[in-house]
Amino acid sequence: MLAASLCAANAAMAEPLRVGVSEHVYGDLAQQIGGPAISVVWLRPNPASPLPHLDLVICGCAGKDAWLRDATRRASGPPGLIEASPPSAGGRSEPEFPWYDPPTMEKLARRLEAELAHRIPREAPRIAANAAQAMAAFETLDRRIGEVARDYANSDVILADNLYRGITERLRFKIRDEDYLQTVEAGKPPSTSSLAGLKKALQRQTGGILLYDKDRAGPAVEELVAAAGDDGVPAVALRERLPKGLHYQQWMLRQVNAVHGALNEAAP
Q: Assuming Cys at both sites, which of 25, 33, 208, 221 could form a disulfide with 217, CB separation 3.0 to 4.6 Å?
């Protein structure tokens, strides 16, 4: 009887920590650091349903994750909650996709390391080793961003979406369409005049590039991309979601390399 009880207790102790995430990219970071000691559960938006049993929840601070923050706080025996980033400086709210600011994601990885080691102390050495590998990948990404910034700082860039603002600022590019972006950030549809202004900027642009979101490019953005092609401005189709088979750092490195290649093409 005692042996059976000990076996049951050991089995319970060995159960992985259940980590709920609002985005696959958060799950990837958690899995990189927690390894088999955690089980990632992707949570689809459903404010009407209670959360499954979870030990920890990772989500963003933007409005689209408000339902998950509320559900976490209402849960019986609420799980721990980690938000991807604090409110941004300068009065801007957190972007919808904070993973386009690699330093923010690196800080999130550090917070995950501390939280998981605290919650699963028996796995602390393995968590530390996993985190060291993740940080080495971040260092590779940071180094590449620094190289591109060194070669192309102050390059002109037009953003069809505010998704890329974070990494654009890290690369030290000059954003040519702030008025348009502020309209997008305010949740308003761009006006005909603002789109016309972007097309004129493309016609005048030399040595610059256009960045757009391939995953949700509507007719207006597709028209901009076509205009860029007509004017000889390289257009870079970036993605807003983590592709299958890549870790976050690998994906961002691929995106930065795509931007670098476009700048090489645009160089006068």
A: 221
